[in-house]
Design brief:
By secondary structure, the protein is of the alpha/beta class. It contains nine helices and seven strands; from the N terminus they run αβααααβββαβαββαα. Strand 4, helix 6 and strand 5 form a beta-alpha-beta unit. Helix 2 crosses helix 3. The relative contact order is 0.13.
């Protein structure tokens, strides 16, 4: 069911893609699509998501300003907040057991490639904080970043999975020569 899949998988692209609306509306967008209309629930979800994205303190006084006015690193963290909004179970009413289940998988395609080192550190710290709530799959060509943010690593070459193992093993003692050649900068 593609609709169910879209509700459970968030995507953060290499180039940040904030919607042409306010910071608040960017984060609340998915929840509103899911039918949430309660302003208190939306406010709570927006704040929580922006806090998880380490962005709340930077934008809390300008939530209704255009998201396009944010820096590149802030826009990327906003897109992460938008992708993770609703991760907590949000109750639609005091006595109502209906809940919105948030994303369970977060896909990130080179999320730091266009960011400065400070913004990169913030996004990597965010990945560490979110990994208890999400399965995060990151595509990166930055091997140092892969060692910092991942528990498991898959090495792909020419469209095929060459090796998959614990990150520490892949980078310190890979099982296959092809993987070792890539990691050490030699190609066979």
């Amino acid at each position: 069911d593609t609709i169910r899949l879209r509700r459970e998988v968030g995507m953060v692209f290499q180039k940040s893609n904030p919607f042409p609306m306010s910071i608040y509306e960017n984060v609340a967008y998915g929840l509103k699509l899911a039918g949430v209309r309660n302003r208190g629930i939306l406010d709570e979800a927006v704040e929580e998501s922006l806090r998880h994205a380490a962005l709340w303190d930077e934008v809390k006084d300008r939530l209704h300003a255009s998201a396009n006015g944010l820096s590149g690193g802030q826009q990327q963290r906003l897109c992460i907040a938008r992708s993770t909004a609703g991760v907590q179970k949000l109750y639609l009413g005091r006595d109502d057991a209906d809940m919105i289940r948030g994303k369970r998988i977060l896909l990130m395609d080179e999320p730091c490639s266009a960011l400065d080192p400070i913004a990169t550190v913030r996004v990597e710290e965010l990945m560490h904080r979110l990994k208890d709530k999400f399965t995060i799959i990151v595509v990166t060509h930055n091997m140092q970043q892969a060692t910092r943010v991942s528990d498991l690593t898959g090495f792909f070459m020419l469209g095929r999975l060459v090796e998959f193992d614990a990150t520490e093993k892949i980078f310190s003692n890979p099982s296959l020569k092809e993987t070792e050649d890539y990691i050490t900068g030699r190609f066979s």
